[in-house]
Amino acid sequence: MAYQLVKSGKRQKDTRSDSQLMVDLCGGDEDAFSEVIRRFQGPIYGLLIRMLGNEDEAEELLQETFCRLHRYRENYDPERPLVTWIFTIASNLAKKRWRRRSRWITVPLDYVNLTSPGKTAPHYESGRVELRASLEEAIGALPPHYREPFLLREKQGMTYEQIAEVMDIRIGTVKSRINRARTRLRRLLKDTWENWK
Amino acid sequence: MQDKQGPHPPATTSQRHLGELEVNCREASKLIDLAVDGLATDEQLQLLEFHMMGCSRCRSSFQMTMDISRITRTLSSPTPPPDLEARVRQRLAAADSSPSLSRKAALFRRIAYGAPIAAALLLVFGLNTIHPGSQRSDEYASEAVVGPSKEIRKGVIAKQEVAVAPFSGYRRNASPLTF
Question: How many H helices and E strands in chain A?
Fold first, then answer.
């Protein structure tokens, strides 16, 4: 394909928009599907693993998300952003999985990267690492219906409207859930934050 | 004393604005979210700043929320499996090669979900059609003919109503759906 020129062993960056990729995929361009996977695998895997707390399940649902995207590609409306559509698929799969488990899940800290990229005072950085670890733990302790909108807002940078679309809830509900998630996190992290500050 | 000085002078512009700038902590919490998300208007920011000037708790909440938001954005993102695309394509190929299997699975799923719903509907209709209290009402009628006084009869009926099975007593007043 013209978009997939191989130059000095590295694949050239695909400049097509998300919607264009889906249009091309519907037209039979399988390279477009590869690009969709490449673009969205990280964010979706990050959300799923934090929602499910289990690598195996997150991987399985990640595969299923892309399988569904491929299977139902004709249903995609190019006028709407692909990011909300694909996150809606992943979110629905995660919800199904919770219903099957019927209990709250705490995310293990196995995957937490405790390296500190900053170059500031060591005591400040050690506090920061501790705060990051505590934050991971606190996010894992949030109920899923608070955790999901919070992560979509903070990690994916989605707007309230997009989150409402992904979760199929009203914007007011999104706002109140994010507000409650933050309130809980403040309560859980108060001591750690006071020490770090 | 007030009479000597006359009526209070009208509030100055700054005083009027100070009164309008008051929000409580609950409202401030919502404004904190908007401010952290960068969605607060200038007026809302002004309200929040004014509130935080006199409320150390909300000031602390605001700083903490900002820090939580900033650090959450920098949390590590787990790396997806390197062979993801190959696995997805494998799954798609497997699904394409055995469409009848997926159709069977869909049918089985429909039965699995449908059976409990059908059972529940049968139970609801069954409770509506069966009248376990009808026999008892005949007994009451016979007691009414040969029984003693009205008051005693009422007492007997009341006691019996307590003693009988719950469905017969509730039948007239409540639908089985209310259980």
Answer: 8, 2
